[in-house]
Design brief:
single chain; mainly alpha; 2 strands; 540 residues; disordered N terminus; 4 domains; 28 helices
């Protein structure tokens, strides 16, 4: 009978049946309450995920995009992830067929990874995975390689073994085989294949898959450093054909890789001059990026020359918006190691260039029309960036003054507190921040800064501050607002990176308890994945 059913009706039945299966075995509310109690007593990633699935499945509606479904996929709750994704897609797509196809695409990489880890060959896994495409292969390959394509996780990175390398090689070949024709999607897939070939060191295969990209005007922008080093500068320049900008970019990258200071200086100088001569105004942002690239290469002399040239130009010509050319100059001077007096001078000029009124029109948008200094967040952005530079210089009173009454203070203070702010200034800055923030937002700003210091290899004094701050936040009582999970996630990362298991364990437990109290499925999914990684690390 089903055989005779029209195809659309069959698809509708399949979709409905998938939802039915997901809901049929949900616990009743009383049973679910018991699960909450049991999970709070003996917390595991499984009980957090199970409760999260139950709460999400009971929700009257789901948001149009639920990033936390990825957490389920990474924990091998793939059927549950598909059921939830299908509900989301049914609210977005015009037909059951389209909804099923979209849901399959969203979980395809998870299905492929699980199948390969279960012993299937990549080709069999691809053939049996509905909705899989070259993009799914690429994401699955990065996952198997340990590159964490779904977002950062607190897991120890292990070097891929020979078996994994062989699997990645085969997956790269699969993508290369499936690419045909030209156009943006084809170019993207070729870049995917080349990136995987670079991981396993297959130079000839990477070159072969890239050759057709030579007809793409901007193909070199798709070339990451690993692929460039693998294929070599000669092949890279050859693939540029007659495109002059492409050839210059390849020669510059070759000089940077080889350490050829003279060649790199010449090309960076050309790029800098070109950005400075742009009309109707200089591209101060691009000039700043070139200075950053120069400084990262270790050529502080040229970086400082560029920064001073930018600062002088900012005094002669306007940019798209007021103040920002001087801010860009101050950032460049700081990056290049200029004297503090030079940096402060550019900051003074930036503040002097602020419009007097918040509603002053400072530009005209093609779509938005008149752009007001205070109405588009420009004033707040300028204040944040100057306050950060003032804090780094030790001008704390000036930094605090700029932050008074600023919009979105939690975000603003997180932007000001960067790893290069001296640890001696943190207490005074945070004292000012505390008066503008709720208790939970204040904990969030401190926890995020503690994590950032650890991730960016800050000084020992900064790391000691991170540990002490994490311990204080953990003792402040359980936070339960919408930022609670992120607070404890940041602290768990501090514990993980510093190999402080007591902080990591306490943060994960607080993250789980907060999620259970909130009954929010997104928080439960996030907490489940963090605990899942911790459980697996303890098992070795």
């Amino acid at each position: 009978m089903i055989k005779d059913m029209p195809r659309l009706g069959l698809l509708t039945l399949i979709a409905a049946f998938a939802i039915f299966l997901a809901l049929e075995f949900l616990p009743g509310r009383r049973e679910l309450n018991d699960q909450y109690t049991n999970c709070a007593t003996q917390m595991t990633s499984t009980c957090l995920a199970d409760i999260g699935v139950a709460e999400a499945s009971r929700a009257k509606s789901l948001p149009s995009y639920l990033n936390e479904i990825r957490a389920l996929g990474q924990m091998e709750y793939i059927d549950q992830a598909f059921a939830l994704e299908l509900r989301i897609q049914q609210g977005k797509e015009s037909s059951p067929e389209a909804a099923i196809a979209a849901a399959n695409r969203h979980v395809a990489s998870h299905r492929m990874t699980a199948a390969i880890m279960g012993g299937q060959s990549p080709r069999d896994a691809f053939a049996q995975t509905a909705g899989a495409d070259p993009g799914s292969i690429f994401i699955s390959a990065l996952d198997l390689w340990g590159d964490q394509p779904y977002g950062p996780r607190n897991v120890v990175r292990r070097l891929p073994d020979d078996k994994t390398r062989a699997i990645i090689s085969e997956m790269a070949a699969m993508i290369a085989e499936k690419v045909s024709g030209s156009g943006p999607q084809s170019a993207t897939y070729r870049a995917y294949a080349a990136e995987l070939f670079a991981l396993v060191g297959q130079r000839d295969d990477a070159v072969d898959v890239l050759r057709p990209l030579a007809t793409d005007e901007n193909w070199h922008e798709r070339l990451n450093d690993e692929v460039f080093v693998l294929i070599g500068p000669e092949i890279a320049a050859e693939l540029c054909g007659e495109k002059v900008d492409c050839q210059k970019e390849m020669q510059l990258r070759a000089a940077e890789v080889s350490g050829d200071v003279a060649v790199a200086r010449t090309y960076l100088s050309d790029l800098f001059s070109k950005a400075a001569r742009k009309e109707p105004w200089p591209d101060f942002t691009e000039m700043g990026e070139i200075i950053e690239r120069t400084a990262e290469r270790g050529d502080t002399e040229q970086a400082l020359d560029f920064a001073r040239e930018l600062a002088a130009l900012a005094q002669q010509k306007r940019g798209i918006f007021p103040a920002f050319p001087h801010i860009e100059a101050a950032k460049a001077l700081a990056l290049a190691g200029a004297d503090t007096a030079e940096i402060r001078h550019s900051l003074d000029l930036a503040e002097a260039d602020f419009p007097r009124k918040e509603n002053e029109v400072v530009g005209i948008g093609m779509v938005s029309g008149p752009i007001q200094w205070g109405g588009f967040g420009l004033g707040a952005q300028a204040s944040r960036e100057i306050a950060n530079l003032r804090a780094r210089l030790g001008d704390i009173d000036a930094a605090v003054r700029l932050m008074q009454g600023i919009e979105q203070p939690d975000y603003a203070w997180s932007e000001v507190l960067t790893p290069d702010v001296p640890v001696d200034h943190l207490d005074q800055l945070l004292s000012a921040a505390k008066s503008a923030l709720t208790e939970e937002d204040f904990a969030y700003v401190r926890a995020c800064h503690a994590q950032e210091l650890v991730l960016f290899d800050a000084s020992q004094a900064h790391l000691a501050w991170s540990v002490a701050t994490s311990e204080v936040i953990l003792q402040e009582g359980l936070y339960g607002g919408h930022k609670a999970g992120w607070i404890y996630r940041c602290i768990a990362t501090v514990g993980f990176d510093l190999k402080n298991s007591s902080i990591q364990r306490a943060a994960i437990e607080s993250m789980g308890r907060s999620a259970l109290e909130s009954k929010d499925y997104s928080s439960l999914f996030r907490a489940a994945l963090v605990l899942y990684d911790f459980e697996n690390s303890e098992r070795g």
